[in-house]
Amino acid sequence: MPDSRPTPPRLFVFGLGYTARVFADRLRAEGWRVAATCRSEEKRAALAADGIEAFLFDRGKPLADAAAALAGTTHLLVSVPPDAKGDPVLDHHGADLASLVTLDWAGYLSTTGVYGDTKGDWVSEAAWLKPTGDRQKRRVEAERGWLNLYRQYGVPVHLFRLAGIYGPGRSALDSVRAGEAKRVDKPGQVFCRIHVDDIATTLRASMDRPTLGAVYNVADDLPTPSHEVVEYACRLLGLDPPPLVPFEQADLSPMAASFYSDCRRVKNDRIKQRLGVTLTYPDYRTGLDAQFAAERTA
Q: Is residue 232 part of a domain?
């Protein structure tokens, strides 16, 4: 007899990085089909071995058969960042996505960096976008491109502006253990963060409550100086914290130093009020406490 069970939904991910993999694995645990792109044949084989259908994609290597790769996709997640030429997904496959009639939801992972420097003031999704660096300016252009795909073709796009992402393998605990953590003092400087699991929760909530063209800040409740986070991680690990060094003497890489050029506090009311999200890790302490406890249990 033919199988009468309904076909499970299919998530297609452009760029299966740290955050997207956590989210994809959550949906797989619910019985979803997951497909994703990667940039090497070795990675493609590894994903296939994990049960994820994988396709090669990069700026210079669009999907070989986009129609076949995207067929049956009900939900789309894009975590590929724009480059100097623009957004590679839109450039290569915007038209393919515009004609994808099975698509119920699409999420684009952006950054709170699009707001630029507010001198520590709070920003909501209604704030003006004033990016200060080239990377942030590219993000603003990419956001516009994705929203245009919604406005012109009805693609069900949702934008998620993510704060600094952390979680197992990418937290202050990991950087302290690796000997890479620094305590940099720049008076008045704070950073916003979000645990990777809370990003996954927010994306899943948006799927359940889609609002086409919506924009969401995804950040926890407690903007904090980075040196306080490192100190707390050291306390959990029973280690002496590294010395507190003035920003001007910290010898940071150009990339690391660029993050200190902006200071803002990001409001997260919208994900709570419109999506019903309750953060599992409302601040860095709860996130690091949970990771530390899980590591000790393991």
A: no
136 neighbors 116 (Cβ within 8 angstroms): yes
CA distance 215 to 160: 6
What is the pLDDT tens value at each position of the chain, 298 positions in all? 455 567 999 999 999 999 999 999 999 999 999 999 999 999 999 999 999 999 999 999 999 999 999 999 999 999 999 999 999 999 999 999 999 999 999 999 999 999 999 999 999 999 999 999 999 999 999 999 999 999 999 999 999 999 999 999 999 999 999 999 999 999 999 999 999 999 999 999 999 999 999 999 999 999 999 999 999 999 999 999 999 999 999 888 998 888 999 999 999 999 999 999 999 999 999 999 999 999 999 8
Structural domain contains residue 132 = yes
CB of 140 within 8 A of CB of 128? no
The SS3 of residue 52 is coil
Q: What is the DSSP letter of 102?
A: T
3-state DSSP assignment of residue 73? coil
- What CATH number should be reported for the domain holding residue 107? 3.40.50.720
Q: How many domains does the chain have?
A: 1
> What whole-number distance in Å separates Cα of residue 189 and Cα of residue 255?
17
Range of the domain at 26: 10-165+194-219+267-279
CB 17 within 8 A of CB 36: no
